[in-house]
Amino acid sequence: GQQVMQIPQYQHVQEGEDFTTYCNSSTTLSNIQWYKQRPGGHPVFLIQLVKSGEVKKQKRLTFQFGEAKKNSSLHITATQTTDVGTYFCAGARGTGNKLTFGGGTRVLVKP
Amino acid sequence: DADVTQTPRNRITKTGKRIMLECSQTKGHDRMYWYRQDPGLGLRLIYYSFDVKDINKGEISDGYSVSRQAQAKFSLSLESAIPNQTALYFCATQLGETQYFGPGTRLLVL
Fold this sequence. Notes:
The complex is a heterodimer. Chain A contains no helices and eleven strands. Chain A is an all-beta fold. In chain A, the strands form two sheets. In chain A, strands 2, 4, 5, 9, 10 and 11 form a six-stranded mixed β-sheet that branches. In chain A, β6 and β7 (61-65) form a beta hairpin. Chain A is globular. In chain B, strands 2, 4, 5, 6, 9, 10 and 11 form a seven-stranded mixed β-sheet that branches. The chains are: A mainly beta, B mainly beta. The A-B interface holds A 1, 6, 9, 31, 33, 35, 41-45, 48, 88, 90, 92, 95-96, 98-104 and B 1, 33, 35, 40-45, 48, 56, 58-59, 90, 97-104.
């Protein structure tokens, strides 16, 4: 079956630094989504990428979908303590199909 | 966001007991999902339903069953709970391509 892997599993970041988390699918995706889960909270939708090579930005967050539509990345610049949480990517094969979630990257920020 | 509620929020039960986790939503979304979350394993799909008459198994359905009583309600049952079903359980709805998660139920099976 479809597998979605995320690396790293944990990311310790100094406040103010940049980091990137990566997501790789074993199969070609129709779209990929990113969710953020704050400690003790539930996953919240951040963004969806659909087109090959697509890049989207949300303030300090930059999301990219690979040319082959099998991988994605999330880059955060100038990390802040509010960025703490677990970031999940989730891929779908086909429009409206169920999502397969990656294992998540847990981000810890050192002030 | 969809208003997705889950009850109970926390539950402790013993091995062999039958329990039910309930999920309700008020936004009229047809698609609903049940996931379990374990540390390092992300969210794994247990069951999903695209409408009231549609029920589908996810990747880890063994030991679980579901009931879609109405568009707004999707319940997850553990017929005979076992300790490795200790986890955080999330219900989610879907509108378009986006999923909206409930607050979660933390289940401990002793």
